[in-house]
Amino acid sequence: MTPASTGAPTAVGAVPTVPASDSRMAPGGPGYRRMSFALFLAGVATFALLYSTQALLPLISGEFGVAASEASWTVSAATGGLALFVLPMSALSERFGRRTVMTASLAVAVSVGLLVPFAPSLSTLVVLRAVQGAALAGLPASATAYLAEEVRPRALVTAIGLFVAGNSVGGMSGRIVTGWIAQEWGWRAAVGVVGALAVACAVAFRLLLPAPRHFTAGSLRPRVLARTVRDHLSNPLLCRLYAIGALFMTVFGGVYTVIGYRLTEAPFSLPQGIIGSIFLVYLVGTVSASTAGRLVGRLGRRGALYLAGTTTAAGLLVSLADSLPLVLLGLVLITAGFFAGHAVASSAVGKTATTGRAQASALYQTAYYIGSSAGSTIGAMAFHTGGWTGTVGIGILAVLGVVTITVLGSRAARLSARREFAAAH
Fold this sequence. Notes:
The protein is mainly alpha-helical. The chain has one domain: Growth Hormone, Chain: A. Helices cover 78% and strands 0% of the residues. Helix 6 packs antiparallel against helix 8.
């Protein structure tokens, strides 16, 4: 009997023993489609809830009489709560199982989501959103760890890409639905509908996700957890991947927090429903995330990151034009670049960490959502002081950071290869 079958704990993140005839899931194999669809729905629910207020910020500003920088806290509080709690949640998933933690997280998050429409003040709304973000923290790291344990390595990038694609669909559908509903019945009705949608996704997720077969329970001892985290943070490659995820999300968080304000102003002056429909460009992210595996196969991980960064920067520059078609083209490029970069970086974390995968993924998610919170807040502040040009400037700086880190990674890899060659000869 394995430790998993007896329930006996092992070291945090111990690599599960896999039979020589690999029984992990692969495309076309039993359970793979159910697993993919279940985690796709989890991704839909996560992003729909996490960013449910983002497209509604102008309406929230109007109701509570606050500026964009204050209303943006309804987004930053949720992503900040997730960033703070993703590591503790990952530790719970090591002990109690990925599926258990993901199910509990969704249950709490959707329950809070049904309370959000009744928030009497901005401060109450921000607190509820922070709690909701903290609850959702059990999803991202646990899902990545579940995939790393239950899916064959060659299919891992594709499987994680599908989960990320679910994120993009959730973000898109949440924003489109809220935009049109808010135009007719206000932002409270809009976030209520998103909450109901998330309930349906949560129920389907629990019914569809296969029980884990290769999970090994870990320890909750703080010293063991601290040692695992320290080991990950001392790994230069993992640290570079964490920074890349944070910087990509800084761009994305800033752009999509502010874009609604820009499009309600002259020369666009678009109604809320049309602004919500702008988020159809998330479909581009669905495609780019789900094809990240092929992109890495052709260009390598660093080549894929260079392409993602270049595409994102090009989109930022194109979006500066006071032309709606060019703004839309810019959003398409930004979205495609971001989701491709995120899928590549997050899957690389799962491959790099051979132990403590949940903690490795949790640290990535912490950095990623810190980037989201920073992007939402700093992007809104930059828009308040310098307009859309200010927000784009913050995004360009973040992309330059991605490129610089990738260049340093390429240099470190070359030096390491030379040292290994010299040692061998």
